[in-house]
Amino acid sequence: MSTIILAVVLTLVGCHANIAPSFHQGKTYVYNYEGVISSGSQERQLAKTGIRLTCKVEISALPQNNLLLKLLSPEIEEYNGIWPNAHFTAASKLTQTLAPQLSQPVTFEYNDGRVGRIYTAESTSDTVVNIQRGILNILQITVKSTQNVYELQEIGVEGICHSNYVIQENKKANQITIAKSRSLNNCLEKKVKQTEPALGQTCISCKQRNINLQGNVAYNYVMKQKDGSTLVTQVRGQAVYQFAPFNEQGGAGVTETSQKLDLINVRNEQAQAPRLHLQHRGNLMYHFAPNVLQNPIQLKRSMQPETEITAALQHLVQNNVRQLHSDAPSRFMLLSQKLRELNEDNIENIWKSYSKRPEYRQWILNALPVAATPAALKYINQKFQNGEITRAEATEALTIGLFMARPSRKVAEVTSEILKSSHVQKSPYLHKMVLLGYGSVVYKQCLDENLCSESLLQPLHEFIDKVTVSTDEEQTLLALKALGNAGQPASIKRIQKFLPGFSSSASHYKVKVQTEAVMALRNIAKKDPKKVQDITIQIALNQAFQAEVRMAATRILFESQPSVALITALAESLRKETSLQVASFIYSYMKAMARSTLPDHRALASACNAAIKLLTPRFDRLSYHYSKAFHFNTYKPELLMGISEDMHMIKHTASILPTVLMNKGRMFFKHLGIDADLEFTVRTEGLQELFFRHYSASPQSLISNKIKQVMKTLSRWREVPAEKPLASAFLRIYDQEIAFAEFNKEAIHNAIRTIKQTVTPHLSAQDIIKEVERGINKHLSKPFSIAEVRQIIPTSVGLPVEAMMQATAVIGATISTQAEVHPHPSENFRLADLFYSNIRLNVDATPSANLHISSLIGVRTPYIQSTSEFHLKAQAAIPLKFSAKVNLQNQNVKIEAEPVQHEKDLVTIRTEVFVASENTEDQHSAKRTPIMPSLSEGNVRKQQFHPGQETSVENQKMERQHSGLMSSESVSDSREHLFQGSKAASQSAYQMCAKAKTLGVEACFRAKAQNAKFIKKSPFFLLTGINEAQVFLRPVQSEPSIDNIQVEFQAGENTASKIIRQITGEEMNFGEDERVHKISLRSQKGILKSNKKHTGSPLTKKSSTSSSQSSSSENKDNNEDKQKQHNIKSKNLQNEWEHTSKKGPQQHHASNSRSSSSSSSSSSSSSSSSSSNGNSSSSSSSSISTSSESSEKHHKDQHPRKRQSVESEIYKHHFMSTRVQQKEISRKEPWSPSETHVINKNFVSSSSSSSSRSSSNKSNSKNSRSSSSSSSSSSSSSSSSGSGSFEIVPFTI
Questions:
Q1: pLDDT for res 242
Q2: Closest Cα partner for 1110 from 1287, 1218, 1236?
Q3: Are the C-beta atoms of 977 and 952 separated by less than 8 Å?
Q4: Where would a tag sit more exposed on the chain, N or C end, judged by fewer CB atoms within 10 A?
Q5: Residues 109-126: pLDDT tens digits?
Q6: Using an 8 Å Cβ cutoff, are 97 and 107 in contact?
Q7: CA 436, CA 896: separation in Å to the nearest integer?
Q8: Which residue has the higher pLDDT, 589 or 671?
Q9: Which residue has the higher pLDDT, 89 or 986?
Q10: Band of the pLDDT at 674, cuts 50, 70, 90?
Q11: Reduced to 3 states, what is the DSSP secondary structure of residue 194?
């Protein structure tokens, strides 16, 4: 009976005796193993790529709890195609290469289902050992004898992670089933390698949510008990690793693994210990290669790095002459990555080969800082020390290199050596940049450490201790900025020496130094926010301190994510605040943050929203004369992306300029775990004093007077004391200050001296002009590494899965210029003589920019790679070819350009997703398959448009309005739905064009897509496939073909001559094939509409109405009704003008512009009335002239001030006239030279001034082609000459 009770108790508590798997000596267990890893989408009918390993596994027991593992008949296969239709293909050559390593014996410790230390042959590569770890990982089982369901932290290939067990026993079948699952997002020690953003800061909340790369593993074991032991008979494993570029609900890139282990035989065979020497290779956890993060994992090739560097350099130099090549960004990134594999001697060999060739030399100097290895940084410093590169080149290279360098102890040591070198100490600006860069190196090195090594901080602490006892303000600021870049709590005590309230000596420092000491706490707050909050709240609440220091402390307090209690205390202090500057800044900051929608600001926004309710609305009445803080943001949860903009304006009561103006833009990508920001701050110190003394313009002054007053004030910059800078500015990227400068007298003189030194001293002005006349041809290019982020985690099969994103851009320009100077420079020519010369400049330039963004997820090893990749390529090129005639003395510029002759691509964007597979042994079998099945049959770029077909529902026609030259009538919209409804792909195409017939060109936008939006309309599936977009220009066929486009700018005293200019009969004597067509009607209508919107005077409104009706008299279909209405309005307007003219000058003194507009309207009305009554043109002009003269005389006598104001207002404006030379194909009647086009600032009127048309019928029949005429004096001149006309001026600047 007691035996039965004991059995029941053991059953209830879940006791399992001897169920841990074991292997007996004298027996060999043979299993079939299959491991598969695949990458791509989980959706069917999309492309996938994968690797499969099959083999037989023999496990034999050795003494002392050791087991022997052998892999027999291994076979590697590759998969690349549409899932699940394609098939695995054998990689026979790769199998032959890896089979000797895979077949090497492996011994490992095994006790109660747990794998211990592993021993393999020394010649076995890390990749093969990790595959063997994946097989051993199946045998890792932790069994608890007292529980059926339990959880624990367990070691595995992925690290020490959280595991759940469920044990079920089937006694009838003598079978035990164990379900095991592991969460890779909950690990005590996770095996992962990731590159922190080179210039970005890591998103801490993203790391906490494990949003970057997630994974889960599940195993199912079937075991049987036999002869008092438990034997593993079957194992099934499944794992999923996903990378979500956007919100994971919209889709994600997935890598899946599966494992199968089946017992097929047990032999009675005693295993022999291997005779070869086996090396200890660690435990079950994955082992990464030493420099795995230095470069993306690439296949082992026979080509040496030097050979690949040479090929990349030749491609960059030879294919980027006229315009940037589409592969320029990817080639530059390859060049940088290959330079990381070289030591100093190898780099020296490359440098000697190309240093004397400027094009190659520039690409090498651009690539070395991006490589940013210790060898590259040391080599740059050595070349500067030897004088082989200039100071400017060394400063640029070291600045970029130190901020791009990956954190390592070696990088910190090399940077410290560069900082202490004598040639760097002798160059103040270079020393400044290296010291700031060293602070950034320390910040990245200690990012994941609670306490940073004292040896790393020693150079920074020694430098600040040295400047503390000195009175050098600039060096003190530099030391504080370097400590701010380092951002270590160990530096707080040294920073407190400059903070008011924490040191008695802090009051001796200027406000600028105290403010900088507060700002040095910004990065420390990320590690120790509580300590920083305690410091900043004390400074912010103490009204005895300077307002600027308190506002800086408030900013740091808000950035440290304070609690609700601190925010409430700060709001409560505003009730008794005596400084309106501080009160306005804090209140505006709280109000701005209360509206923030960023995920990181949720708690802060809630606290600020509650705090501002404690305050009275009177704070809203503080104007922009006080300090303000602004915050704008937007966040898209479906994209996991957002942007924000912060602007702080700190002012003093007596200043018209802000003391500090800060602008900070921020972009964050949650899927990459990156926060990227750019901050630019300007301090106006000497400028404030300068403007306070000399600026005297009133707020009511004209803008032109204010500009003149500002320029006159700035010209007195020499009056500012030498020790006080005019202004200072600094730039922060990703919360790391990379540059700052003070603009004082000495700095300005040094800059002038540097500019003079760059010019050859013996080069005369005449030589310079000759050089320009011969022509200058330049090709400039500058590459940028925008981002390079990688994350690698091991999978259950022992192969690594990598998620990577990198972005590279190259900008460039090809410039070809040639100048002609008339008269030709003499021997005594000076540069000042150009003022009296006519200059013709021919320019042919092509600025361009290329961007390449690539991301992937999949397996990347030195032997085989299988990935799913996304690529975005963007190209922009704007060809510019024009000639300019410049006359500085007359302040005249004429620009001529040819119209568009053929189609030109301005912007091209293409995205593509495909799966790729390749291996080292059979590189010819490398395969890339578009992820969409239909893309393998045809290219979307080859599809033709059929505008006549119906469009899809998604592509409904959009109504767009174009103003100015882009007429709404010339917009063509054609869209096509090429393929819809199939589950294989969704294809669509769209095209829209806007024509500008006057310029003979149309701008078009074309888009094509073949993607997987049929699965789900989300950003992930919209980008899955091929998408293309283009913006291009192409010529428009018009009846009068355009030969040339001219644009003229006139300033100064001759401006009025371009408003109204008389054209002689000889100028108008054009043939039938060549005429000058003036752009008038459309521009005049635009100016009339603008005047209607901006004029509040009723006289002006009537003037514009009268003018527009007169201009519209060209359409003679219903002209009679319009003329009657026009005559009535003209009489009313004339009566109003006469009534206004009789008023005293005091009543007109406040309405100058209205009287001017009324005068113009009166002239226009009289002209229109005379024409409509059928009088002859000469008499009409005469009557207009008389009326206009009498009105002007009366106006001049009664209001001389008003007349002078109107004239000066006209002469102060700049005008631009555009002429298009056209060939006239057909015209029913020749154009009369007497037709008149006049445009003024406030009105446009029309009249016919041909003296030969005396008949009323003839005048009416030609009225549709008559042009506008205002200005009585001009009309009289035209009538008297008989062959004169006026040139239009369509635009007013």
A1: 84
A2: 1236
A3: yes
A4: N
A5: 998 889 999 999 988 999
A6: no
A7: 49
A8: 589
A9: 89
A10: low
A11: strand
Q: Locate 824 and state its tokens.
A: 């030709």
Range scoring the smallest mean pLDDT among 106-110, 204-208, 548-552: 204-208
Given pLDDT bands bounded at 50, 70 and 90, which one contains residue 521? very high
Q: Report the alpha-carbon angle 802-807-813, nearest 5.
A: 160
Comparing 26-30, 317-321, 783-787, 1078-1082, the range with the smallest average pLDDT is: 1078-1082
Contacts of 85 (CB under 8 A, 6+ apart): none
H-type alpha helices, 327-446: 328-339, 344-354, 358-371, 374-385, 391-404, 409-420, 422-426, 428-445
Helix (H, G, I), strand (E, B) or coil at 455: helix
Q: Which helix (H) or strand (E) holds 132?
A: helix 126-136
CA separation for the pair 937, 929 (Å, rounded): 11
1074 φ, ψ to 5°? Answer: -140, 120
The pLDDT of residue 310:
92
Task: Determine the Cα–Cα distance for residues 482 and 20; give it in Å rounded to an integer.
Answer: 58
Residue 381 contacts residue 398 (beta carbons within 8 Å): yes
Q: What is the pLDDT of residues 643-660, one digit of tens each?
A: 899 999 888 765 667 888
Q: Where are the alpha helices (DSSP H) in 1077-1199?
A: 1081-1094, 1098-1111, 1119-1141, 1145-1148, 1152-1172, 1177-1198
Q: Tell which residue, 1047, 1080, 1048, has the closest CA to residue 1286.
A: 1080
Token readout for 1127 is 């005559």
Q: Which of 776, 797, 905, 759 is nearest to 845 (CA)?
A: 776
Q: Residue 40 and residue 47: Cα distance in Å, rounded?
A: 7
DSSP annotation of 898 reads P
Q: Are 894 and 1048 in contact (CB under 8 A)?
A: yes
Residues 6 or more apart whose CB falls under 8 angstroms from that of 594 comprise 605, 608, 609, 612
Listed as own residue / partner, the contacts of 468-474 with beta carbons closer than 8 Å and 24 or more positions apart are: 468/494, 468/497, 473/510, 473/512, 473/513, 474/742
What are the pLDDT digits (tens) for 452-480?
888 899 999 999 999 888 878 889 999 99
**Bond prior to 658 in cis (omega within 30° of 0):** no
Residues paired with residue 190 on neighbouring β-strands, in sequence order: 159
| 1014 phi/psi in degrees, rounded to 5 | -65, -25
Residue 1219 phi, psi dihedral angles, 5° rounding:
-125, 135
Residue 1110 pLDDT exceeds 80: no
Token pair 């420390």 is found at 524
- CA neighbor of 1114 nearest in space, from 1291, 996, 1244: 1244
Note the pLDDT of residue 814: 87
Residues forming a β-bridge with 72: 56
Could you read off the pLDDT of 871-926 as tens digits, one per residue? 999 999 998 888 999 888 888 889 998 888 888 899 999 999 999 999 888 877 78
Determine what percent of the chain falls in helix, strand and coil, rounding each to the nearest 5: 40, 30, 30
What is the rounded average pLDDT for all residues in the chain? Answer: 75
- Spatial separation of the C-alpha atoms in residues 654 and 82, rounded to whole Å: 72
d(Cα 1263, Cα 943) in Å, to the nearest integer?
51
H or E element that contains 769: helix 765-774
Token digits of residue 1016:
């789900």
Q: Other C-beta atoms within 10 Å of 817: how many?
A: 14
Read off the pLDDT of each residue in 189-207 and give the average, rounded to a whole number. 64
741 exposed, middle or buried (CB, 10 Å; 0-12, 13-18, 19+)?
Answer: middle
Amino acid type, 596: S
Q: State both tokens at 454.
A: 């004292």
Q: Report the helix count and the strand count for the chain, using DSSP H and E.
A: 38, 39
Residue with tokens 């290895």: 373
* Cα gap 1062→1287, rounded to integer Å: 7
Cβ–Cβ < 8 Å for 31, 97: no
Mean pLDDT of 847-855: 92
d(CA 467, CA 546): 23
Name 1199's Cβ contacts closer than 8 Å, sequence gap at least 6. Answer: 1145, 1148, 1155
